[in-house]
Amino acid sequence: RPLLEVSNLRKRYANGHLAVDGVSFAIAPGESLGLIGESGSGKSTLSRLVGRLLDPDDGAIRFEGRSIGTIGARDFFRAEQRPHIQLVFQDAAGSLNPRFTAFDSIADPVRRLGPARNPGALRHHVEKCAADVGLAPALLDRYPHQLSGGQCARVGIARAISVDPKLLILDEPTAALDVLAQSEILALLERLRREKGMSYLFVSHDLHIVRMICDRMVILQNGKIVETGNCEEVFQNP
Ligand code: ADP
Ligand code: ADP
Prior knowledge:
This protein is α/β, with parallel strands linked by helices. It contains nine helices and ten strands. A six-stranded mixed sheet has the order 6-7-8-3-9-10, with helices on both faces. Strands 2-1-4-5 form a four-stranded antiparallel sheet, covered by helices on one side. Helix 5 (119-132) packs across helix 6. The longest helix is centred in the C-terminal third of the chain and has 18 residues, at 179-196. The model has no long low-confidence stretch (mean pLDDT 92). Residues 13, 15, 17, 19, 37, 39-45 line the site of one adenosine-5'-diphosphate.
């Protein structure tokens, strides 16, 4: 059974723009799917629909067989499913809460979504998440503006894995980084997926990166999937 199943998803913005136009795909447990397309093709909209930050106009999203796509399912999703589907955003430095230390950013999903933990247990858990992403404990007391871009990216990833998700949605997670930090973060993401058995929906405009990180890819053009296949196949007929 697929972990995630998206069928005939459609999203029109208030200005009339049809950003996602009848998209269907599935992600198996442990699979990494690349979502590739030019700027404006609808990648972010699609990833925000799947991550349930936006409501679709039409179509279905099923997670482990349960419907999570409808507005009626929103409360159920927030209460039960949010820990299983986490997001890592582009430009971590800009999307982390500027008033949160690294510690509080990582602890936030746990505080909001998990059962209450005592402070000692929470600190232990946050330090473990930080260690998983190669973030030194001394950095946990810093605010985003006191961290490098690569360190902020690590905080964003530690935050997302803090609730042990089954699916990670990564929206151009290395786009704001220099090449060195970029390759470090990609290696980190590959290792985390191996170790934790997570599935990825990995959004990128960069075929080279998708080929490194993903098993399969779908190509989006004007809100529609125009090609799908394993990375090598798609590469051979451009
Ligand atoms: P991508 O991530 O591939 O760059 P987006 O999903 O951000 O694509 O955008 C898809 C299309 O929807 C673009 O034409 C964009 O201009 C439009 N769009 C994105 N967000 C909004 C919005 N809030 N209101 C209206 N149009 C939007
Ligand atoms: P609410 O915003 O009402 O708490 P949700 O549970 O749907 O509802 O969303 C969680 C909020 O946390 C969203 O506003 C989202 O933008 C924000 N958020 C930021 N980063 C993450 C993350 N990694 N995982 C989940 N939510 C996140």
